[in-house]
Amino acid sequence: MTGGETSGALVAEVVSERGAFRLEAAVRVDRGEVLAVLGPNGSGKSTLLATIAGLIAPSRGEVRLGERELARSGSDGRRTVATAVDRRRIGLLGQESLLFRHLSVLENVAFGPRSQGLRAGPARTEARHWLERVGAAEFAARRPAELSGGQQQRVAIARTLAARPELLLLDEPFAALDVPTAAAMRRLLGELCAETATPTVLVTHDPLDAIVLARRAAVLHDGRIAQIGTVAEVLGHPATPFVAALAGVNLALGVATARGEVQLEGTDGARLVLSSGSTAADAAARPAVGRAASAVFSPGAVHVAPVHEGTQEASAAPVANRWFGTVSLLQPAPGGVRLTTVEHPELAIDLPGAAAVALDLQPGARFAFSIAAEEVTVRVRD
C-alpha cells in the first residue's frame, strides 16, 4: 500500500512572510486530486510550497493533511503546532533530481524506506518495485552521473514515491527536460498520481502541465489567490494577463455596458466594444453597468481586412466586435505572423503567412479588425 492510499485531503489556510513579501492563501486538495498553481515569478508559489512542506512556519493559520495537523500559528504569531519536516510524509520533486551522487540508483531509491526504519533487504525490494514502475530498473547499479536528465528524473520520481508520501509537491518538475522526455514524464507521473491517489500540488509555468495532470488550477498574484477553478475555467477565461499569456489568448480589460458587453478605450480615445452575443441576449446574466469586466478571445480568431479609401472610421456608437487599428509591431508566430496595434498594444492578432503576404502588412498601415461573437467570452471581474 502506498502512502497516498491512506492520506487525506490537504488543507492549507496560511499567512506566511519572507522578508517584505507576504503570502495569504487558502487551498484544499482532495485525495487523488492534482491542483496546478500558476503565477509569475515572485507571486508566492515557492512560499506556498515551502509553507506546506514545513520549510517556512506560517505567521498565522494552519496546514492539515487528513487528520494530521502539520502546522498552526495563532493570530499573535505563536506556533502551537509545528511538525518536523522529516515527519510530514511529504514528497517534494523539483526541476533538479538532487540524487545522491555517491550512491547507486538502487540505493538512492531505497534511501526513503531505509530512513523510515525498513531494513536494507526489504528497502531494496521496495526500491526495485518503484524502479520497475518508472521504467528505470535497468539503471539500478549505475550512479546518477551515468544517466541522462530524463533518466535521472525517472529515478527521482521513484525515490519520491518509494518514501510513501501522503502528499506530493511538484515544483516545475519538467522544466529542465526536452519536449519528448517532458511528455513521457507527464504521462508517467499522471499514471502514478492516479494509481496512488496522493493529493498533489503542482507548481508550473507550462499550461500543458496543468491540462494533462490537473483538474483544478489556482492563480497566485502578489501573494494572493487571484483565481481558482477548473483548469478549463482558469485557462479558458484567465483573470490575469500572466495566465492569458500562458493560455495564448487575449485578455481585454474594461467596463460592462448596458447590453452586457465589455467596453475599453484605445490609446487614441476610440471605444472598442466586445460582445459574446449571449450576454446581450440574457438580461439576467448581464453585469452591472460600469462594473469591471473582461473579454477573452484567441488572437487567431480575429479577421483582418484593408481599410478602403473613403471608409468612415469614426463613429459615436461603435459596432460591437469591430474596430480599426494601426499596425505597430510585427512578430513571427507559429504558422504565420502576429501583429499588434498602436491603439490596443495589449491585444495580439495572428494571421497565416499567406494572409499576411496578401494584406502586405507593414508597420503604420491601417486595417479593419472584426471577430465573431461566438469567439468571445465575457466575465464580470471581482
TrEMBL record:
Presence of keyword ATP-binding: yes
GO molecular function: ATP binding
UniProt keyword terms in alphabetical order: ATP-binding, Nucleotide-binding, Transport
Residue ranges annotated for the ABC transporter domain, each copy included: 6-247
A family per Pfam: ABC_tran
Family matches, as SUPFAM superfamilies: P-loop containing nucleoside triphosphate hydrolases
Keyword Transport among record annotations: yes
Residues annotated as transmembrane: none
Name the UniProt record assigns to this protein: Sulfate/molybdate ABC transporter ATP-binding protein
Organism: Agromyces lapidis
